[in-house]
Design a protein that fits this description.
A: globular, B: 11 strands, 0% helix
């Protein structure tokens, strides 16, 4: 079945440093979504990418979808303590127009 | 309602006990999903409803797990004869077509 892998598993940064998490799928994706889960919270939808090579920005967050639609990345510029949490990518393959397969997530901690 | 509501928030069950977890999705959302999230892991798909129809139950771990959504709104996930390996957070999510998921706060099930 479809597998979605994320690296790194953990990342600790000093406040103000940049952060990037990478997501790779074993199959070509129709779209990919990113979620953030604060400690003790539930996943919150951030964004969806659909087109090959797509780049979207939300303030300090930049999301990319690979040309082959099998990988994606999330980059945070100048991290803040409010960025702490686990970032999940979740992919939807062409065989399903509803089911999302989540990666294991990258836990980001920020030292003030 | 404004968001996805799940109850109870926490449930402690003795091994062998039956439990029922409730999800009240966002009004008008056709799609409803149940996911299971183990500690430190990403959400794992359990089952999917489109209105009252259960279109995919491929993620249910065993025949002890049963989900229903009889009127196309509120859904119940039932686990019979709970086992320790059932301990996890059970997340419900709803969405409208093509959009991201809105997750509830989850039910943390602990089987003792």
């Amino acid at each position: 079945g479809q597998q979605v892998m994320q690296i790194p598993q953990y990342q600790h940064v000093q406040e103000g440093e940049d952060f990037t998490t990478y997501c790779n799928s074993s199959t070509t994706l129709s779209n990919i979504q990113w979620y953030k889960q604060r400690p003790g919270g539930h996943p919150v939808f951030l964004i969806q990418l659909v087109k090959s090579g797509e780049v979207k920005k939300q303030k300090r967050l930049t999301f990319q979808f690979g040309e082959a639609k099998k990988n994606s990345s999330l980059h945070i510029t100048a991290t803040q303590t409010t960025d702490v949490g686990t970032y999940f990518c979740a992919g939807r393959s062409g065989g399903s127009n509803y089911k999302l397969t989540f990666g294991k997530g990258t836990l980001l901690t920020v030292n003030p | 309602g404004a968001g996805v509501s799940q109850s109870p928030r926490y449930k402690v069950a003795k091994r062998g006990q039956d439990v029922a977890l409730r999800c009240d999705p966002i009004s008008g959302h056709v799609s409803l999903f149940w996911y299971q999230q183990a500690l430190g892991q990403g959400p794992e798909f359990l089952t999917y409803f489109q209105n009252e129809a259960q279109l995919d139950k491929s993620g249910l771990p065993s025949d002890r797990f049963f989900a229903e959504r009889p009127e196309g709104s509120v859904s119940t996930l039932k686990i019979q004869r709970t086992q320790q390996e059932d301990s996890a957070v059970y997340l419900c999510a709803s969405s409208s077509t093509g959009s991201g998921y809105t997750f509830g706060s989850g039910t943390r099930l602990t089987v003792v």
